Amino acid sequence: MRNYRCILASLALLFAFVTQVQAAPVLDQPAPAFAARLLNGQTISSAQLQNKVVILNIWASWCGPCRAEMPVIDAFYKAHRQEGVEVVAISMDDRKDLAEVQKIAGQFSFPIAWKIGSNIEGYGKIWRIPLTFIIDRQGILRRNGFEGSPTVTMDELNRIVLPLLQQKDLKS
């Protein structure tokens, strides 16, 4: 009887732990909703970006690979925003780094958001950065930042995003 209680207690603890862990999004399934608080105080959400191809980038000012890929994302965004691509980059920096985040944000044409006041819980525990997710016009996850290389290249953006831009939006 004593072993039985010990097993039940262990299972209860395991269940409590598992239910607290946030699952990562699943490729080719609906992308989790997000809301990002931009540096200017406005909020942008996945609901506002329906019918757009969204590049959701999670980065930090102290992350070298993050900083290296941001010019690539910006160049792609500038070349294709008229076709329906949107970028939302969420900084994981602390409040004390706000000045540095703002300085970096000034270098790019896409919106920069702040983890504080943003909701990206559906994307799971952020345990590595950079993380770049790509969501198609129908809201389906087409690149999972937790899989494969943490950084994106221009070749990868061209290979994944360009065909998605050719798809008709839901209004057509």
Low-confidence stretches: 3-21
Which sequence of SSEs, written as H and E, runs from N to C? HEEEHEHEEEH
Got a strand count?
A: 7
The 3D shape can be described as: globular
**Mean of residue pLDDT?**
88
**Strands of the biggest beta sheet: in what spatial order?**
2-1-5-4-3-6-7
Percentage of β-strand residues: 15-25%
What does this structure look like?
The chain has 172 residues and is α/β, with parallel strands linked by helices. Helix content is 33%, strand content 22%. The protein has 4 helices and 7 strands. The protein has helices at 2-20, 64-80, 98-105, 154-166; strands at residues 35-38, 43-45, 53-59, 85-91, 112-119, 131-135, 141-143. The protein has a 7-stranded mixed sheet with strand order 2-1-5-4-3-6-7. The protein is globular and about 40 Å long.
Q: What can be said about this structure in brief?
A:
The chain has 172 residues and is an alpha/beta fold.
